[in-house]
From TrEMBL:
This protein's name: Xylose transport system permease protein XylH
PANTHER family reported in the protein's UniProt record: ABC TRANSPORTER PERMEASE PROTEIN YPHD-RELATED-RELATED, XYLOSE TRANSPORT SYSTEM PERMEASE PROTEIN XYLH
CDD domains: TM_PBP1_transp_AraH_like
Source organism of the structure: Streptomyces coeruleorubidus
Record keyword Cell membrane present: yes
Stretches that traverse the bilayer: 12-29, 41-62, 69-86, 92-115, 122-145, 165-181, 202-220, 226-244, 275-294, 306-328, 335-354, 360-378
Amino acid sequence: MRGSVRDAERGPLLVVAGLIVIWIVFQALDDKFLSPRNLSNLSVDIVGTGLVAVGIVFVLLIREIDLSVGSVSGLAGAAFAVLNVNHGMPEWLAVIVAIAAGMAVGAFHGVFFAWLGVPAFVVTLAGLLIWNGLTLDLLGASGTINIDEEGLVASLTSRHFGDDVAAYAVAALGTAGYLLAARRKRARHRAAGMPYRPTGEIGLRTGLLAVLAFAAAHTLNRFQGLPLALLIFLVVLVVSDYVLRRTRYGRRVYALGGGVEAARRAGISVERVRVAMFMVSGTLAAIGGLFVASGLTSASPTTARAAGSGMLLINAIAAAVIGGTSLFGGRGSPWSVLLGVLVIQSIASGMGLLGVEDAVQFMITGGVLLAAVAADALSRRAAARRGRP
């Protein structure tokens, strides 16, 4: 356990400690912060940014960056609203078209970067401006499109499973899934003669996870139950983590993040992997944009400009980096987003309750991001001194 804390897991533990401090401070300043209502709202608020941040993780793992995700999110929300409200397209079909548009945008960026050699920073920066301009054109200079408050997209953030069994079932399933995965990993490592976690450590970790999961379920049930948005977010995290850690394709992604030439010599199609990662980023940005539109129950030029200005982008990158994904590639996981976005949204929620001005919120968020990046750089420098990758 001491070795784990010293090395790979020190970062997440520090983030958890920081999150606890944040919650204690805001609860001391306003006793409504840790109320079931506010924590339930917080669990919904993290989803839009969290989904975008998961896409950012895929791109960061290959040592690149996608600056267009905020604009792609706004474009997806606007495309859905225009198709469904203005043109009468069924909601389910408009959702598919909006998500497909995000995937196409990601492929567009990936082709310019991987096959034409244009730096990803330049391609996605241009995309930020292009897609934000297209969003404003779709909505009109002064038009706001309100979506159906009882419709499919609106229900993404408003729907809750009121039955207590739902939240407890998810907590039990998550705990059992972790235990099964940990035991299978232990058996594989033991059979291969690799270091593996002792049974006692696995039991301790499972117990801690069970306490946290059931405490969260109890808190959610004290308000309106398990939010649909949170359930979808957790499913995306599980699927993304499985793809990256348990599939051949995921291993190629990490290999590419470790070194382009080494990955190419190992027979990996670098260009295809790069295009695929930008497609994943664009797709998840579009899905996140639909959740943002769901929370606002509208799409408007104001929200489009906000996305294009970079606030959603900054929050998404901050969530990924604060959670432990490296800006230098090759290290991180989708689960890191959960911790990072909780930190970002907890700060926003707490300062919102206290009535803190937006300017102060921006400065604090920027400071937290800078601290996370600096910690990442120092960690890699220390690892290099010890002769580790």
